[in-house]
Design brief:
Low-confidence stretches of chain B: none
Helix content of chain A: under 10%
Largest sheet of chain B: 6 strands, mixed
Order of helices and strands of chain A: EEEEEEEEEEE
Distance between the termini of chain B: 41 Å
Order of helices and strands of chain B: EEEEEEEEEEE
Number of strands of chain A: 11
Radius of gyration of chain A: 14 Å
Mean pLDDT of chain A: 93
Distance between the termini of chain A: 36 Å
Oligomer: heterodimer
Structural class of chain A: mainly beta
Largest interface: A-B, 27 and 24 residues
Structural class of chain B: mainly beta
Strand content of chain B: over 45%
Largest sheet of chain A: 7 strands, mixed
Number of strands of chain B: 11
Strand content of chain A: over 45%
Shape of chain A: globular
Helix content of chain B: under 10%
Shape of chain B: globular
Number of helices of chain B: 0
């Protein structure tokens, strides 16, 4: 059982470059999320998707975009990376209430991104 | 806006001791609360999920309680072991109906000394 996979594991990126972080889940969960984790600030929500075809903004969405073309994949794109986007990025998924789920969230292993 | 606080930020205990980690939240209109564990350089592992209709949930040596009216949850770890050393995070849904996204506390870093 893979659960949630993220790629790449880590990346060093020059400022101004475009980057897509990949996230795939095999649990058929309807909801997916992207968080960033920074020392002293904890985990903060970037974007989310309650079901395929819909997305929403979280606490810190600026500079990021997402798409949800199908149930399994939820890529996060940095259109033009800046040093303040240096962080560890976590993807998560859950089966939300209303579809019989408990909304227990499961996390991927993370992507460590450094923007220079 | 939902805010989650975890106290203490760090805790060091000798092996075998029972301990309690605390979590408080500002908006009591939640439908569940989740406790996670995070090892250094790793992702989050879900430990326990308590639904709003429950008062507590148990898994092995872990017991989590929820008091919505006071905006508090505790995670009790019995007979602590060095392998329990990690950061423990609690999280609750954002405020508002249909809100499934989580707000996290900043965690309690636990060290269990052999």
């Amino acid at each position: 059982i893979a659960g949630i996979t993220q790629a790449p594991t880590s990346q060093i990126l020059a400022a101004g470059r475009r980057m897509t972080l990949r996230c795939t889940q095999d649990m058929r969960h309807n909801a997916m999320y992207w968080y960033r984790q920074d020392l002293g600030l904890g985990l903060r929500l970037i974007h989310y998707s309650n079901t395929a075809g819909t997305t929403g903004k979280g606490e810190v969405p600026d500079g990021y975009s997402v798409s949800r073309a199908n149930t399994d994949d939820f890529p996060l794109t940095l259109a033009s990376a800046v040093p303040s986007q240096t962080s560890v990025y976590f993807c998560a998924s859950s089966d939300i209430e209303g579809s019989g789920g408990s909304n227990e969230q499961y996390f991927g292993p993370g992507t460590r991104l450094t923007v220079t | 806006k939902q805010e989650v606080t975890q106290i203490p930020a760090a805790l060091s205990v000798p092996e075998g001791e029972n301990l309690v980690l605390n979590c408080s939240f500002t908006d009591s209109a939640i439908y569940n609360l989740q406790w996670f564990r995070q090892d250094p350089g790793k992702g989050l592992t879900s430990l326990l999920l308590i639904q709003s209709s429950q008062r507590e949930q148990t898994s092995g040596r872990l017991n989590a309680s929820l008091d919505k009216s006071s905006g508090r949850s505790t995670l009790y770890i019995a007979a602590s072991q060095p392998g329990d050393s990690a950061t423990y995070l609690c999280a609750v849904p954002y405020s508002g109906a249909g809100s499934y996204q989580l707000t996290f506390g900043k965690g309690t870093k636990l060290s269990v000394i052999p």
